[in-house]
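Hi both,

Apologies for the delay on this - the queue was longer than expected. I finally got the S-adenosylmethionine-bound model through. Below you'll find the protein sequence and the ligand SMILES exactly as submitted, and right after that the structure tokens for the full complex including the ligand.
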Amino acid sequence: MSFWEMYEDLSSNGLKEMVANKMSKIGDYFASQCGNPHGVIGKIMTWSMNRANNVMYKGIVDELKISPKTQILDVGFGNGYLEKLIIQKSRCFITGIDISEDMVNKAAETNRRYIASGNMKFQLGDCCDLSFKDKTFDVVTTMNTIYFWNDTAKGMSEINRVLKDNGIFYNAVISKENLDKFFYTKNGFKKFTKDEYIELGKKAGFRRIRIKKLGNNYGLLIIYMK
Ligand SMILES: C[S@@+](CC[C@H](N)C(=O)[O-])C[C@H]1O[C@@H](n2cnc3c(N)ncnc32)[C@H](O)[C@@H]1O
């Protein structure tokens, strides 16, 4: 190999490494924004999720059995898009908790008319340590959040605790196979198989667990019955 060939080989490998390095940093930044959206980028990310995950919002809303008396807790509401769809299906009472203060403000702004009517409230909170009394809610929903909980088992048992007897927890997720296809889910995402989702539910004390496919296997709706 001539000096120049060696030089070219080295510089093209160096470039590849540099690009790989940059992509991995961008991926980690995306993952951290998904797990705790903040600032302008957080708003753009959650806005694009509203579009990309259409099939999941539709799937969870179609499945919900709600009446004007239903008390819902939504965990990790992001920009509050799901709550808007739920209330358009039926009037009910929705409490949202999220660990991102920016998202609390954004969701409150989007849904101000429902806050004014007393149907919604948004607050800071972590599902691994809920401030609500036992058996407060008829329904708990969450979409694309379980990957980010610090203590998944604790989050599941907290949700079980705040649900009334016969209450239902709807957990909408992107399947592990599909999450694995995204470049930004290598770090910062906990990914679970269907069997692991079932196991988590059983350990948290749920009585029955059902899994529905959302879209062409893109997402899953795991329905846990207390
Ligand atoms: C990918 S976004 C999904 C937002 C919304 N559910 C949706 O699908 O449009 C994840 C959201 O979960 C929130 N989150 C992450 N961990 C949480 C936790 N332990 N408790 C409550 N919210 C959490 C994040 O702040 C973020 O708003």
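Main takeaway for now: Residues 34-37, 49, 75-78, 81-82, 97-100, 103, 126-128, 143-145, 148-149 surround S-adenosylmethionine (CB under 6 Å).

I'll put the files on the shared drive as well.

H.
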